[in-house]
Specification:
Strand content: under 5%
Structural class: mainly alpha
Order of helices and strands: HH
Radius of gyration: 20 Å
Number of domains: 1
Length: 80
């Protein structure tokens, strides 16, 4: 199985969130017809985008904390 980086997860999340906003907007201004499938897809893409965005954000924070901790430990080893 492949693993996406945190930046990729955030990027995909943003694209899905944009789709979740644009689709209902297009339905309201009657550019595309309002169907159950499109409504469900807009909701699902918005929800999935939020989840993927948060997962990407959490993984980025975790990686940064681990890197800072590792650098701090290395610095303490050199001092002692």
């Amino acid at each position: 199985m492949f693993r996406l980086s945190s930046k990729q997860l955030i990027s995909i999340g943003v694209l899905l969130l944009i789709a979740g906003v644009v689709l209902p907007l297009l339905m309201v201004i009657r550019v595309i017809p309002s169907t159950y499938f499109i409504n469900f897809f807009a909701f699902a893409s918005s929800l999935a985008g939020m989840v993927l965005g948060f997962l990407g954000l959490f993984s980025a924070v975790k990686l940064k904390r681990e890197r800072l901790k590792r650098e701090k430990d290395e610095q303490n080893r050199h001092v002692s």
